[in-house]
Design brief:
The protein is of the alpha/beta class and about 750 residues long. It has four domains: about 190 residues, P-loop containing nucleotide triphosphate hydrolases (Rossmann fold, 3-Layer(aba) Sandwich); about 70 residues, Arc Repressor Mutant, subunit A (Orthogonal Bundle), CATH 1.10.10.160; about 200 residues, P-loop containing nucleotide triphosphate hydrolases (Rossmann fold), CATH 3.40.50.300; about 140 residues, PCRA, domain 4, CATH 1.10.486.10. Helices cover about 45% and strands about 15% of the residues. The strands form four sheets. Strands 9, 10, 11, 12, 13, 14, 15 and 16 form an eight-stranded mixed sheet that branches. The protein has a six-stranded parallel sheet with strand order 3-2-6-7-1-8, sandwiched between helices. The protein has a five-stranded antiparallel sheet with strand order 20-19-18-17-21, with no helix packed on it. Helix 7 crosses helix 9, helix 10 runs parallel beside helix 12 and helix 17 crosses helix 21. It is globular and about 95 Å long. It starts with a helix and ends with a strand. Bound molecules: adenosine-5'-triphosphate (ATP) and magnesium ion.
């Protein structure tokens, strides 16, 4: 039977319990990693529904990923049952899209509006940069990043124009103006707009804001440290204040950890926490200090790294589970050596009974995953890389989605341009330019102008025929959408009627075969979506009428897929090892963690080396990585790494060097040249009941001397010594050697020792 809410309270510590039970003024829970913030939030919702009779429909909970939302909904559902469906547990973007789908008219959008993802935005900006005749050094990505910052600060075009001083700023403002117009014409919103337009909606229509406030009496936000200003403002508007006696302020509970703020580049700032205390002067703050995730060793390592950040509120994480295994450090010769060591170590752990599902490998940037993939394939380990070049970024998938988007939103210019001549229909650049002129003179979107291409001046008959074919395909798709056909059916028809599939199937290029498979996969994704809708997964708890699958709904799902949503569920069987960037790892936990690429210039990233603020963010990222581990942490680096085909030398990361020596078991260590530091491997294991620490390596085989007690040896750096003790054999042999001062344990295979 499911646990009752009272049972659940039993497991909580005192401050956690207070956080669950708190009523009244806003509640801010600021606490370190693994202290149960997410758990408290979930519990609080369950408690309010089951013990305080709050209607689930009055709850709005914001999580950082769709996956986290699904988990939270499931956990609450386990306590309160099917009623949990009526809650909104969503990311900021999904929640705002849901609101805008209903209120689109008030913000001047047609019901057919669509979402531009980052690739769509980039295409649009590239086109704008060309029109503005910007010189080649002005990177569209850079412009978009600047515009995104403005939007996250809720600065509109006019305000930005008033403040622009430098040439660069003026260029950005002009690009911003054109970009905004184009999005409007295309009936499209980019990611930042999803939030910003919702804020505008609430600001300009207090009545609507009040309606939502009346509905959501309880607002909760996880990972609060990573909200940006626009998101902050959205919450403020949703919660309101007590000036309206009929609809007093909603109850608000936010949880976060300032030390885990890792999205400054998306506009998140510590300011949100400070602003919170200013805007809600009666707020109550609860601190959680006990950590339930990790061993003390891991927490000490995390503390050692994060305390070096200036200006933070000091808090020390502690646990009562004990010290546990030491951190294992491995210094590889190069990235391949590092990856093979990780793979071999995982192999050993599997032999010792650890499930691959409980293991994760983290790195700083996506590009680092490839070498791990090679090593895992060589060792036959099951794994999944999360992020990187994603399914939805593949050319054929994007083409197919462009067709689909056009059936919903005829004004979507980026999509129309993308596929008007795919497959080839004789619609060249010149024809496109003619359509552009038509669009400009008649004030139409590019998509709408295509439908009136016969009015275009100077276009060849062949191009006109091509455009005509294209328009007919899209219109047929649109008719299917209007008839309520599910997305998988519409998609299949479009792919067939457009000639897209036929062309790929006729091709002898093996890549095209893979493309056909990807399209088949996309159709399956659409079918799965439809099935989930039919099963009620997308009910918003408002109407009793069952929802039906739509193309628009499917596209929305796709546009909101984030890296973290692809993390394998790993529920059945032993699962797979997960490989991901540190950013994606936020909020997650694994028994065993490999923190790789701890090279100065890789992590911390070289870009951050001369910027104290960025360096602080890198440090927080290291803190996030370390605190994901429950039982055992591995840290590794590679002395050289190839970049642009050349080996680059990297000294050890400063974060690696800051880990207290006594917490570390050295599998292999290399001192940077010129710096001769004593090597002090320590004996493995040590309490905590974790996994046995076996120290091995996958470095190139060399002649390993077979040592016995009493043997005399010469070490390249320490000189002459005598073997006191030996354990392990072959590649795993370690020897305790007396060099005259403290005896040292060395992994024989890697120590520069020769037997005399
Ligand atoms: P992060 O900062 O990484 O997001 P968090 O503060 O949200 O971490 P949780 O993920 O909620 O922490 O909790 C970490 C782990 O500790 C989870 O496995 C959770 O189930 C467990 N935990 C939290 N509180 C308790 C408790 N009172 N008793 C037992 N386990 C707990
Ligand atoms: Mg959490």
């Amino acid at each position: 039977s499911s646990p009752s809410a009272a049972d659940l309270l039993d497991g909580l510590n005192e401050p956690q319990r207070q956080a669950v039970l708190h009523e009244g003024p806003p509640l801010l829970i600021i606490a370190g990693a693994g202290s149960g913030k997410t758990r408290v939030l979930t519990q609080r919702i369950a408690y309010q529904i089951s013990e305080r009779n709050i209607h689930p429909g009055q709850i709005l909970a914001i999580t950082f990923t769709n996956k986290a939302a699904a988990e939270m909904r499931e956990r609450v559902g386990a306590v309160v049952g099917g009623r949990a469906r009526a809650m909104w547990v969503l990311t900021f973007h999904s929640a705002c899209l849901r609101i805008l789908r209903r209120e689109h008219e008030l913000v001047g959008l047609k019901s057919s509006f669509t979402v531009y993802d980052s690739d769509d935005s980039r295409r649009l900006m590239t086109q704008i940069a060309r029109e503005m005749e910007l010189d080649k050094r002005t990177n569209p990505r850079g412009l978009l990043a600047d515009i995104s910052k403005l939007k996250n600060e809720l600065i509109d075009v006019e305000t930005a124009a008033g403040a622009a001083a430098s040439d660069r700023e003026k260029t950005v403002v002009e690009a911003y103006r054109r970009y905004t117009q184009r999005l409007r014409l295309a009936q499209a919103l980019d990611f930042d707009d999803i939030i910003g337009v919702t804020v505008d909606l609430f600001r300009n229509h207090p009545v609507i804001a009040r309606e939502y406030r009346r509905r959501f009496r309880h607002v909760l936000v996880d990972e609060y440290q990573d909200t940006n200003h626009a998101q902050y403002e959205l919450i403020r508007l949703l919660v309101g204040d007590d000036s309206d006696p009929e609809v007093p302020a909603s109850s608000l509970c936010v949880v976060g950890d300032a030390d885990q703020s890792i999205y400054a580049f998306r506009g998140a700032t510590i300011r949100n926490i400070l602003e919170f205390e200013r805007d809600y002067p009666n707020a109550r703050t609860i601190l959680l200090e006990q950590n339930y995730r990790s061993t003390q060793t891991i927490l000490d390592a995390a503390n050692a790294v994060i305390t070096k950040n200036p200006g933070r509120r000091d808090k020390q994480l502690w646990t009562d589970v004990g010290g546990g295994d030491k951190i294992i450090r491995y210094d590889a010769d190069n990235e391949h050596d590092e990856a093979l060591w990780v793979a071999d170590r995982i192999d050993e752990l599997s032999d010792a009974g650890v499930r691959p599902a409980d293991i994760a490998v983290f790195y700083r940037t996506n590009a680092q995953s490839r070498v791990f993939e090679d090593a895992f394939i060589r060792r036959g380990l099951p794994y999944k890389v999360v992020g990187g070049v994603r399914f939805y970024e593949r050319r054929e998938v994007r083409d197919a989605l462009a067709y689909l988007k056009l059936t919903v939103n005829p004004d979507d210019s980026v999509s129309a341009r993308r596929v008007v001549n795919v497959p080839k229909r004789g619609v060249g650049d010149r024809a496109v330019a003619c359509v552009d002129v038509l669009a400009d003179t008649k004030l139409l979107s590019f998509g709408a102008a295509l439908e009136r291409a016969d009015e275009a001046i100077g276009m060849s008959a062949r191009a006109k025929t091509g455009i005509d074919k294209f328009v007919k395909v899209v219109q047929a798709g649109r008719a299917m959408v209007e008839a309520g056909e599910p997305p998988e059916t519409v998609l299949e028809t479009l792919l067939t009627d457009s000639g897209y599939l036929v062309e790929l199937e006729a091709s002898t290029d093996p890549q095209d075969e893979a493309r056909v498979e990807n399209l088949r996969e996309l159709v399956s994704v659409a079918r799965e979506y439809s099935e989930r809708v039919d099963m009620g997964d997308f009910d918003d708890g408002e109407t009793d009428e069952p929802q039906s699958p739509t193309v628009a709904g499917f596209l929305e799902q796709v546009s909101l897929v984030a890296d973290a949503d692809q993390i394998p569920d790993n529920d059945d069987g032993s699962g797979v090892v997960t490989l991901m960037t540190l950013h994606t790892a936020k909020g997650l936990e694994f028994d065993v963690v490999f923190l790789s690429g701890l090279d100065q210039g890789v992590f911390p990233h070289e870009r951050s080396m001369n910027d104290p603020a960025e360096m602080e963010e890198e440090r927080r990222l290291a803190y996030v990585g370390i605190t994901r581990a429950r039982k055992q942490l591995h840290v590794s680096r590679a002395e050289t790494r190839s970049a642009w085909g050349q080996p680059q030398f990297h000294p050890p990361s400063q974060f690696l060097e800051e880990l207290p020596r006594e917490l570390i078991d050295v599998a292999r260590i290399k001192a940077p040249p010129g710096l001769s530091r004593p090597l002090r491997p320590q004996r493995g294991g040590g309490g905590g009941g974790g996994f046995g620490t076996m120290i091995t390596s996958a470095a190139e085989p060399k002649d390993v001397p077979v040592l016995d007690v009493g043997d005399r040896v010469n070490h390249d750096r320490f000189g002459m010594g005598r073997v006191l003790e030996v354990k392990g054999t072959g590649p795993r042999a370690q020897a305790l050697i007396d060099f005259g001062d403290d005896p040292k344990w060395l992994v024989v295979r890697h120590a520069p020792v020769t037997k005399l």
